[in-house]
Amino acid sequence: MNLETELRDTLERLADEVKPANLAAAALRRAERRRVRRVGLTALAAVVGAFAVVVPTVEGLRPDARPPVGPTPATSVPAPPERTPTPGPAFFDLGPIELPGGWMLGAAPGEDGGFWVWDRTRQTYRQVPYQHVYPAPIGDYAVVVAAGGRRAGVLDLRRDSVRWLDGLVPWLTPQWTADGTRFLTRGQTGSTHVLVVTARSGTIHEVPATGARPDPEAARALWMPGDREIAVAVGGGTWELRTPSTGARVRTLENLPGMDARTDFSPDGRWVVGTGGGRTVLREVSTGSVGAALPDVHPGRAYWADNDRLLLLGGQNKEVTVVDRNGNPVGRYPLPAVMDVDEEHNYSLIRM
Amino acid sequence: MDDFTLFVSQRGHALLRAAYALTGDQHAAEDLVQSALAKLAGHWSRIDGEPEPYVRRILYREFVSAWRWRRRRPEYVTDRLPDRAARDDVAADTVVRLELRRALAALPPRQRAVVVLRYLEDRSEQEVAEILGCSPGTVGSQASRALAKLRAAVPATEVIR
Predict the structure, then answer these.
(1) Least confident of A109-113, A210-214, A333-337, B26-30
(2) Which of residues 24-53 of B touch A (CB under 8 A)?
(3) How far apart are CA B147 and CA B64, in angstroms?
(4) Are A312 and A321 in contact (CB under 8 A)?
(5) Of B17, B42, B96, the CB nearest to A34
(6) Percent helix, strand and coil across chain B, each to the nearest 5
(7) Measured torsion, CA atoms of residues B141, A317, A137, A187, in degrees rounded to the nearest 10
(8) Beta-carbon separation of B4 and A30 below 8 A
(9) Is A26 in contact with B34 (Cβ distance < 8 A)?
(10) CB–CB of A346/A131 below 8 Å?
(11) CB pair distance less than 8 Å for B41 and A31
(12) Mind telling me how many Å the CA of A152 is from chain B's nearest CA?
């Protein structure tokens, strides 16, 4: 008895059990309710203003207990800046969503299906018509993926123009340099080359990564702290560090499985977020030895606030969790209600 | 009839079949499809190209991510065998299907989504990757793990490669 044959048959029989339903009318009613709710939230937000609330995990305090919503949180919050009228509908009129360590919410999907990105020139979140947006940590550039997911390019938020680039793999998260001028990605499946793209010109430089595995999923590439070396995974937690100009191998790091982004490294370069024993853990960069386990986060979704605290993007709630280097939660920051948080957690942080 | 309503009348049931294969529950399937269609409706005028790939992506990604589907995921099957189980050959097939449905219901959401896309909708790994927003390598590994779990749950079957 063949499993795949039985599986197809079982799924067909299962799917055939569904009863017809009147979908269009119900969907349109739901869409209207979402639209009305969005309008209401935007109006409410304009009245309440921006806020950030720190909820320390004090023993005895219920994990889901939060202070009442209001403009006076535990830490002082600056008034929203004066803004000129925006060219289109705003994500919400709350000003920048600030987080510890000089980070802020850079881009996020909205519940209306659009994508919202922080525009530094206009000092507001604005909607852009792309499936994914990966803003640079500083500056005005963002990598965008077109609706349909078949092409990627560089958006200049200041000029509101996009340059579409051939040869990029749209579903790979780009790795930006800290100065926001270049990003790293991979070529099409089967290529061992790492691509370094200059945002301003769209120039694509292929970095030979001989010895790296051709599968983009297995052979990740990321910037090392300082952005002078590219780490290319060769399997088993081993990384080859290469120069971006020639691809020459400089050195090797071992015993660091699961690294996913430059932001995984602590500011002092001593610790990195990785994996171990099926969990996300901190590892000492020099030895690979395992430190604390981190709750409910994937590597690449952790941002260091400083050498002692990390911001974790993930979990089921719309919030960013702050943990110490022992993995203990020490704060929580709510994210906007109008954000669409899904398992992919495809929202990102940028520098203030 | 406007374009959106026409699209739903033509393709809605196909989406509902997929949603039912994912959730195993009529109400949950309708909820999932209506949520995806509501998002499609809000974006209708801005869709570049065919709307079905767009709404299919929303549907599958919502299923994978939305915890509420998991919390109220029902049992696909009951523990009772059909009355014809007295005949061994029929009983064997039926038992396999029942066990397979049980095992499907126990798969994590992403693996279940990959299985439905690959074996109900006959999508390629690349197409599945685009729908779920992950790499083809991830699709391959998720499919392999899912099949391994299904094979372990239903040892009477084997995967012929």
Answers:
(1) A210-214
(2) 24, 26, 29-30, 33-35, 37-43, 46-49, 53
(3) 18
(4) yes
(5) B42
(6) 75, 0, 25
(7) 10
(8) no
(9) yes
(10) no
(11) yes
(12) 13
Of A34, A150, A215, nearest to B137 by CB-CB distance is A215
- CA B108 to the chain's CA centroid: 11
Q: Are A85 and A79 in contact (CB under 8 A)?
A: no
Q: How far is A9 from chain B (nearest CA, A)?
A: 8
CA separation for the pair B114, B123 (Å, rounded): 9
Which residues in chain A (64-123) have CB-CB distances under 8 A to chain B? 112-114
Q: Which tokens sit at A205?
A: 């430089």
Under 8 Å CB-to-CB from A184, ≥6 apart: which residues? Answer: A174, A175, A176, A194, A195, A196, A197, A221, A222, A223, A230
Nearest CA-CA partner of A14 in B17, B161, B151: B17
**Is residue A268 a contact partner of residue A306, using CB atoms and an 8 Å limit?**
no
Q: At what angle do helices B88-106 and B136-153 cross, to 10 degrees?
A: 140
Q: What is the mean pLDDT of residues B5-30?
A: 91
The answer to whether B101 and A14 have CB atoms below 8 angstroms apart is yes
B102-131 per-residue burial string, b: 16 or more CB within 10 A, e: under 16: ebbbebebbbbbbbbbbbbbebebebbbbb
Give A-chain residues touching B63 at CB under 8 angstroms.
Answer: none
What percentage of chain A carries pLDDT values higher than 70?
70
Mutate to test the interface with B, among A2, A4, A29 (most CBs of B within 10 A): A4
* Nearest by CB: A147 against B54, B61, B62: B54
- The per-residue pLDDT for range A55-96, each reduced to its tens digit, is 444 333 333 334 334 443 334 433 333 233 333 334 556 688
Query: Is B154 an 8 Å CB contact of chain A?
Result: yes
Measure the CA–CA gap between B88 and A305, rounded to whole angstroms. Answer: 64
Inform me whether the pLDDT recorded for A317 exceeds 80: no
Kindly state the tokens that stand for A303. 């941002």
B96 vs A: CB within 8 A = yes
Tens of pLDDT, residue by residue over A268-308, are: 999 999 887 777 889 999 999 999 998 767 666 889 999 99
Q: Determine the 3-state secondary structure of A330 from DSSP.
A: strand
Whether residue A12 is predicted with pLDDT greater than 90 in this model: the reply is yes
Longest alpha-carbon distance in chain B: 57
Mind listing the pLDDT tens digit for each residue in A204-218?
Answer: 998 876 555 544 444
CA-based nearest residue in chain B for residue A169: B135
Q: Are A266 and A307 in contact (CB under 8 A)?
A: yes
Q: How far is A33 from chain B (nearest CA, A)?
A: 9
Q: How far apart are alpha carbons A62 and B33 in whole angstroms?
A: 35
DSSP code at position A223: E
**Closest by Cα among A103, A132, A137, A115 to A261:** A137
Backbone angles phi, psi at A186, to 5 degrees: -115, 160
